[in-house]
């Protein structure tokens, strides 16, 4: 059966794919503003490289592959020393006084659910601290595999490592995370 050629329709991307791409991105970066920026960058990159589209996949699959690259680039940037400094500088412009409430984090009535949410947020924060304290490569591999749910082959290709090396890194990262969480969360 002959394969039909898929052509791009950039004028329909926002209507057809923006919500899907946003949901895909926000799960991986856990920040809605950043997810919106990454989707916008994906659309721009798609427009710039439209001539390279070969029609071997659907339009959505092609855009998702661009978005995946944008997410990887984002994590590469923040995992580099320069990127970490930029993120800290942009986020902490004026100490604790800078910024405003995000709509979903405006204080609500205090009840047991609020207490659990605070505990979950504190736990999550501690996990993030422990991941940040991993060696750079361990943290990157752990995030890509466990949080962002990239496929093993994709991580290996992207980071130029073997599958067995990836699993050794994952094992070592989990061991170090367990120790960090035991020291800083469970034994407090």
Automatic annotation (TrEMBL):
Instruction: List the Gene Ontology MF annotations in alphabetical order.
Output: DNA binding; sigma factor activity
Q: Tell me yes or no: is Acetylation among this UniProt entry's keywords.
A: no
RNA polymerase sigma-70 region domain residues are 14-77
Q: Where are its TM segments located? A: none
Q: One Pfam family name from the record?
A: Sigma70_r2
Q: Which InterPro entries would you find in this protein's record?
A: RNA_pol_sigma-70-like, RNA_pol_sigma-70_dom, RNA_pol_sigma70_r2, RNA_pol_sigma70_r4_t2, RNA_pol_sigma_r2, RNA_pol_sigma_r3/r4-like, WH-like_DNA-bd_sf
Biological process, per Gene Ontology = DNA-templated transcription initiation
Q: Which UniProt keywords apply?
A: DNA-binding, Sigma factor, Transcription, Transcription regulation
Query: In this protein, which residues make up the domain named RNA polymerase sigma factor 70 region 4 type?
Result: 126-177
- What residue range is the signal peptide? none
Family assignment from sequence similarity: Belongs to the sigma-70 factor family. ECF subfamily.
What this protein is called in its record is RNA polymerase subunit sigma-70
């Amino acid at each position: 059966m002959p394969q039909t050629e898929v052509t791009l329709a950039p004028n329909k991307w926002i209507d057809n794919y923006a919500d899907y791409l946003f949901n895909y991105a926000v799960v991986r970066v856990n920040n809605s503003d950043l997810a919106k920026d990454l989707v916008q960058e994906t659309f721009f990159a798609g427009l710039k490289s439209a001539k390279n589209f070969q029609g071997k996949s659907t339009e959505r699959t092609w855009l998702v592959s661009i978005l995946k690259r944008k997410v990887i680039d984002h994590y590469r940037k923040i995992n580099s020393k320069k990127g970490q400094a930029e993120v800290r500088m942009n986020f902490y412009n004026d100490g604790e006084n800078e910024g405003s409430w995000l709509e979903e984090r405006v204080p609500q009535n205090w009840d047991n659910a609020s207490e659990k949410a605070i505990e979950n947020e504190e736990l999550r924060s501690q996990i993030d601290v422990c991941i940040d304290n991993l060696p750079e490569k361990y943290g990157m591999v752990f995030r890509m595999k466990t949080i962002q749910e990239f496929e093993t082959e994709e991580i290996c290709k992207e980071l130029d490592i073997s599958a067995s090396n990836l699993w050794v890194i994952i094992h070592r990262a989990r061991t170090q995370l367990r120790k960090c969480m035991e020291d800083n969360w469970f034994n407090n």
